[in-house]
Amino acid sequence: MTSPSFTEETDPYCLATLDAAAMLFDAPWQRYAVIGDSLSAGTGDKSVGYGDQGWSDRFAHILRQVRPDLAYLNTAVVGATTVGTLDQQIDVVRDFGPDLLHLPCGANDLLRRSPDFGEIEQDLRKMYDLAAGTGAQLTTFTLGRSYVVPAFPDWTERVLTLNDLTRALADEYDAVVVDMWDHPVNSRENLLSADRIHFSTSGQAVLASEMVRALAAALARRTP
């Protein structure tokens, strides 16, 4: 069965910029930073009917409707592991002094013959510790089920294990999680880029909208 064809304006999971900004009308954040890998960077092919931007740049644009003087830094590097992020990005971001900070979920840590999940958890925890030291509101997302690496027969189990680690650490550090594992967008035939790894810009648009929804919900919970 062919997936319905949407544009950014008709996509049921996409928020219009002004609607998204209205949901974040009381957002306090003025310094937004993103660290990590290509998923953090918002790498992806252009989708017909959607703007040519990754989720993180889209989200910064939305937040600027509320905070026109928003400072935005994205240090994400294609192929970065958690250790690589710690070694090459965390100090730069701590110097930036974010009050909203997005963390990667360790996707590239899975691309080993036999991932050591104890070691991965240790590295992720160190990243969360250092990130929490900035005082910023932390965000992250889980990997979607559409992301498949056929070379590893146990790929689904790897992703499920990593997603569980991500959720547990996020809960411990009060990070906002955009849970993409079973999001309906995973079923779209045109979701992935040609590399069959990264969301195309249709998926990037959905990711940005889901980040808005998740942070708006977090703000609502904190309202007296």
Describe the structure.
Strand 3 (100-102), helix 6 and strand 4 (137-141) form a beta-alpha-beta unit. With 224 residues, the chain is α/β, with parallel strands linked by helices. It is built from eight helices and five strands; from the N terminus they run H-E-H-H-E-H-H-E-H-E-H-E-H. Strands 2-1-3-4-5 form a five-stranded parallel sheet, sandwiched between helices. The longest helix has 22 residues, at 201-222. The mean pLDDT is 95. It is globular and about 45 Å long. It has helices at 17-23, 38-41, 55-66, 82-88, 90-96, 117-132, 155-172, 201-222; strands spanning 31-34, 71-74, 100-102, 137-141, 176-178.
Question: Which structural class is indicated by helix and strand composition?
Answer: alpha/beta
Could you estimate the helical fraction of the residues in percent?
40-55%
Distance between the termini: 47 Å
Are there runs of 5+ residues with pLDDT below 50, and where?
A: none
Number of helices: 8
Give a short overview.
By secondary structure, the protein is α/β, with parallel strands linked by helices.
Main features:
224 residues; alpha/beta; five-stranded parallel β-sheet; 8 helices; 42% helix
